[in-house]
C-alpha cells in the first residue's frame, strides 16, 4: 500500500497556483489516461476558473480548501471545504471564490 497526504499536497499545489501565471496547479494522484478511475488534486487561486467543458464520465468534486462555485447551465452551487458534489452529466464550469483546492474523481464511461 502507498499512502499520501492530501493536506500536504493541497498546500504545495496552492503555493504553486499562487505563483503561476495561470493561477492553477494540479497533480493526478491516482489513475491516468489509460485507466478507468482518475483522481486529480487541483489548486486554483481566488478568482480563477475552469471554463465550461464536457464531463468525460461519472465525476465528483470534493473541496479540500476554500470555496468554489460549480455551474451547469442555469444551475449552480457554492461549495466549501469538506463538501462533495456529483458533477452533472452536462457542460459545466468551476470558479474559485477563494484560494481553493479540490479533489476531482472521474470514472470514465466505457
Q: CATH homologous superfamily, by name?
A: Jelly Rolls
Structural domain tally = 1
Helix and strand content put the structural class at: mainly beta
What general form does the structure show?
Answer: globular
Just name the CATH architecture: Sandwich
How many DSSP E strands?
Answer: 9
Strand percent estimate: over 45%
Distance between the termini: 27 Å
Q: What is the spatial order of strands in the main beta sheet?
A: 1-2-9-4-7
CATH topology: Jelly Rolls
Largest sheet properties: 5 strands, antiparallel
Number of helices: 1
* Low-confidence residue ranges: none
Q: H/E order of the elements?
A: HEEEEEEEEE
Cα-based radius of gyration, to the nearest Å:
13 Å
Mean pLDDT, nearest integer? 93
Query: Considering DSSP H and I runs of 4 or more, what fraction of the residues is helical?
Result: 10-25%
Give the class-level CATH name: Mainly Beta
Task: Describe the protein in words.
- The chain has one helix spanning 6-19, and strands spanning 24-30, 37-44, 49-53, 57-65, 67-72, 75-80, 84-86, 92-96, 100-108.
- It has 110 residues and is mainly beta.
- The radius of gyration is 13 Å and the shape is globular.
- The chain starts with 5 loop residues before the first helix and ends with a strand.
- The strands form two sheets. The chain has a five-stranded antiparallel sheet. Strands 3-8-5-6 form a four-stranded antiparallel sheet, with no helix packed on it.
- The mean pLDDT is 93.
- It has a single domain (6-108), classed as Jelly Rolls.
- The chain is 13% helix and 53% strand.
